[in-house]
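Hey, can you fold this?
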Amino acid sequence: MVTETRQIRPHGVEALDNRDLDNVVAETMMGEIALTNVLFGGNAAVKFGLLQLMRGICSSGPLSILDVGAGGGEVVSRACGLLGEQRTHPVALDHHRTSAHMCSARGVTPIVGDLRQLPLGPASIDIAIVSLVLHHVTRTEAVALVAQLDAVARLGVVIADLRRSTLARIGFDLAGRILRLHEGTRRDGLLSIQRGFTVAELNGIITDAGVTDATVRRRPGWRVVAYWRTNHEDN
């Protein structure tokens, strides 16, 4: 077992960690995060993990895809578009009610809930995606969340997050100024990069959650991606 004791959430609290954040500010920031995912590799990282996961998976019916910490719902919408909208049912969980409104507008089923206690039963969805979320919680909470994901996902899990990098911080700071991103988006983004993972750190969290067959890869845009089959097909 990989042992790694570093606590996540250094350097302060991000604005979107506050479920009572002003709705207008939250919607602005979620929209800007969607933009940065397009520009800086976030969507590509999820796409890579999802395509790797889907190799060898055949389904006769629609696949339910859950995005935990979904924000505006863009990630799960793109995932469903990749796999075929007629073959998928997107579900989004977030603690912000603003997220629920944005996801509903996209045709995504929203759930307002806490990722520390997922309101879902064993093998109750097909695929779980967690994008840019794990760095928001402590290591202990991250291990618990991964264990929950492994339990609720019938087919598999994809995790995409950031890799710590001084160069990434400099690049994001510059890009945020050029794109005139909201001050909260720029600040949260810089904190998020500081909280990112090495491959070994993310693998250690997943292993400590009891998952022994995950693949963890570095991806462009200072990203790290993990994916694995959960082997609950018979449930």
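Oh, and this one too while you're at it.
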Amino acid sequence: MNATTSKLTTLAAIAILAMSGRPATAGIISLDESASSISLGETVSIDLTVAGLGEFVAPTLGAFTAEVLFDPLVLALDSITFGDFLGAPDPDHGAGVGSPFETDIFVTQTPGSISMDELSFLFDFELDPLQPGSFVLATMTFTGAGAGVSSVDIGSPLFSDAFGFPISLTGINGATISVASAVPEPSSVVLFGLGSLFLLRIARNRHAALSRHVPNQDGSGSIRSFAGQVSGRA
């Protein structure tokens, strides 16, 4: 089974589970940023968080799909790291304890968009002890790519619990990141100021020296007088 077929299978499974007839559980998903303002070239991390479910008891999250939208002229995606609250996403996770079949994860990236899909293969009694009432699904790291302000929003979220029943979302909270142009370091500002004062002093001294050698109105001047004094001494 290739990656495309596997992803379609996963999405179909999430959709089928979410259309079950059981009353929906309520949840809240949020994007929590490590900083709301950064400078050009600096990094910021944003957590995709789910809350409002059981505290190590049902209901627990069994699958989700979500799209994160941002301005690619302001932010550039560096990396995505998934949590292990739906099962180990890596076979080497937990010193080899994890299983490659605990979760199925797919990430699709386009300019200004990240699509994330995760489906857990664990049973409800295996997921319950893994999930607190609020936890991080994935952490995204961005770099400030251009000066400006970018909203970071969640689009087309679809969540289901450990039994495959839909989780209705009572809150979908995005984030806003401001990227400022690089500010000169304090030491650079001080050096620039000292250099400006030095040049100003040189200019003033030169102006004063020229003023002392300006000819008088009668045609005599300090320059000629000084020259005469030198010739007289010779």
